[in-house]
From TrEMBL:
Ranges of residues in domain NAD-dependent DNA ligase N-terminal: 3-448
Stored CDD domains: LIGANc
NCBIfam families per record: dnlj, PRK07956.1
Top class in the EC scheme: ligase
Reaction catalysis annotation: NAD(+) + (deoxyribonucleotide)n-3'-hydroxyl + 5'-phospho-(deoxyribonucleotide)m = (deoxyribonucleotide)n+m + AMP + beta-nicotinamide D-nucleotide
Similarity-based family: Belongs to the NAD-dependent DNA ligase family. LigA subfamily.
Catalytic-site annotation from UniProt: 117 (n6-amp-lysine intermediate)
Binding site for Zn(2+): 408, 411, 426, 432
Lineage: Bacteria, Pseudomonadati, Pseudomonadota, Gammaproteobacteria, Enterobacterales
Protein name: DNA ligase
GO CC annotation: cytosol
InterPro entries: DisA/LigA_HHH, DNA_ligase, DNA_ligase_AS, DNA_ligase_CS, DNAligase_adenylation, DNAligase_N, Hlx-hairpin-Hlx_DNA-bd_motif, NA-bd_OB-fold
Residues annotated as binding NAD(+): 32-36, 83-84, 115, 138, 175, 292, 316
Amino acid sequence: MDSIKDQITNLQILLRYYQYQYHIMDQSEVPDFEYDKLIDELRSLEAKYPQFITVNSPTQCVGAPIISLNDVKKVYHEVPMLSLDNVMDKHSYLAFHKRIENELQNSDPITFCCELKFDGLAVSLLYEQGKLVMASTRGDGHNGENITNNIRTIRSIPSDLKGVNIPDRLEVRGEAFMLLSSFKKMNDEALFSGHKVFSNPRNAAAGSLRQTDPRVTIKRQLSFICYGLGLVEGGKVSTSHIECLQQFQNWGLPVSEYTRLCFTTNEILKYYHQIQVSRPLLDYEIDGIVIKIDNLLLQKQLGSITRTPRWAVAFKFPAQEQITIVRDIEFQVGRTGVLTPVAKLDPVHISGVIVSSATLHNTSALHRLGLKIGDSVIVRRSGDVIPQIISITNRSSSGLSVIIPTSCPACGSVLQYLKGKIGIRCTNGLVCSAQLKAALKHFVSRRALNVRGIGIRIITQLVDKKYVTTLSDLFFLKVNQLTEIEHIGPITAQKLINELEKAKKTTFSRFLYALGISQIGQTTSDNLVAYFGTLDTLIQANIDDLTEVDGIGTVVANRIRNFLDEKNNRQVIRILVDDIGIHWTPIVGSFQKTSSRKSLLK
Ligand code: D41
């Protein structure tokens, strides 16, 4: 009997520690599914041996323990903020559905409202006479923290509701989260200035909401989506969930455009699969869908068990994270010469794909994590992006330190240490074979010159055989050189040459983007083209002219100027345009250098 008690106590201690790491320190040491597994284990042990349940067992409080880093004010939730039960597969979902049908004993078919499950933080907004008076976190479901000042920095949350029939007191519940694009931007900036880098958007959103200085939060750009009601006094809302959401929208509150009504299990499963397919296209993280009974009266009839309503369930997507072991660390040289550490892993399956390598942001991330070869790590794969190492779960006692290269692993040249030691860079430019390969890959890519049939496999061999030493060499390739590449016969070789010929007709913006100037993406290229109109005008532009262009600051302006001032780059551009004949239809109606954008705006 003692060992059961120990087992329960150990699980309680471990889970409390994980909760603390997650909710207070904004770090996760275990993947979510591992945490869920442990809490389920504890729950079933406590169900069998209720004498060992303690009031502060992690199973007895939802979410964050009521301790916090700062002395923040507590807020009591008159209507408790419940959490959601999870199902992980179709079988368990169907069991939930059947149970509901049985319990309601309703002859009419039940309507369900299906929504996305945003991966952020549950927040409650209190409006009095249509004015936002309080915003709070969920905390343990009964007591949360007052985060009104930070919530006021979220642009999509109105401080005044508009429209008619607004109850005197209205509590709206929803999820605060960070867009993936904002997350990336924030982390890039943090890396540059040596600030804390967050491992995922959820932790970043949590960190932002817990900021004591709202001026920091405002820079973090959080988003919000409403998904439910809390308190309603002095007024009425609809008795249908989807109509409530519609009402929220009419009052100016943000709701998701993906919410749908479903009438059968087949429709619900179809929704689940459709959302799973769209998931990589979204600019935010979701970890599943939420299925709710639409009728609020039926919801009431079913009620809740301690922490979760009986009328709703979260149907989660399969885990995107796994634990594995780091076997080696290699350094890859990117297009701009920056070295990225790549961990070679014991292969693991993550959502249908075998993952055997993962990147770290940069060399400083390696130091920050203190990663050693032999350590166990959490690897995350989301969408089509390269898998990433999120954190270390277990440090190997005999772990080998990573040897940071002192010369470029591709060309052997001396390395430069970047500002704030955030990274290391090979400054050999296109003379470095790794940078040349990456530059060529970008040059021919779909959004650049779109040369079909040429990918990294062919590029690697062409560079290794020294048939291509600059971007322009691609266009001088002969059939007999191409046939020396594996799997290329004379017919394919001729086809590739034809494709290269076709690619010579392009647009100015594609050409500019294809050059691979650091920080010049498609949008910036479009803006540069719209502003300068011709290559000659752009080449002559000074820093002041460049900073007039939408989205270009002094850093990017200097990058462009440095690129254009480099003798080799000027020569490659000249060869590409004058000798090879890359051309585009001239742009009409651009702003041109003489007409300043600022004066146009006046
Ligand atoms: O998008 C979400 N994360 C989401 C969370 C959602 N779409 N709906 C939710 N509905 C509820 C109930 C049914 C309890 C009102 C939720 C949550 N709860 C929730 N999220 C975190 C705690 C509770």
